[in-house]
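For the sake of transparency, this paper describes our internal protein records without simplification. Such a record has a labelled line for the sequence and another for the backbone structure tokens. Nothing more is needed to write down the fold, since each code stands for a local backbone conformation. For reference, a complete record is included directly beneath this paragraph.
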Amino acid sequence: MTMKTAIYCRVALADDSMIANQELSLLCYAAKNGYRDCVTYRDNGVSGLTLDRPGLNAMMKDVRDKRIQAVIVKDAARIARDYIAFMKIIGELDNFGVMLITPQDGVSATAPFKDLARCLKTGLALNI
């Protein structure tokens, strides 16, 4: 089975243009940095305060099924707006050996995620 790179996009207010721009930016980042075989997961118009999101759920299922080797997301707040929820997601990524890359935050991390969590804690409070 080929391992893929997940591109995860989320915007809180439904905006096709904004989510398309976010996706294009992340796909360009992936190509520039050698990540191939990307699959995109989107949550358009879904708050980051809930973890029950169709795109996030599909991505995490693929993580659990060991189809994903890395997740590229614009910034930590796209994953979760709540620190505890964010830690839950990155803990699960860690358990499956999945790298989390957040270009806007300037972070590319593998396990353990302690330094990543410390770096991103402030960013979660500032982004929507």
Q: What stands out?
A: DSSP finds five helices and five strands in the chain. The mean pLDDT is 85. The CA atoms of residues 51 and 59 lie 12 Å apart. The chain has one domain: 4-126.
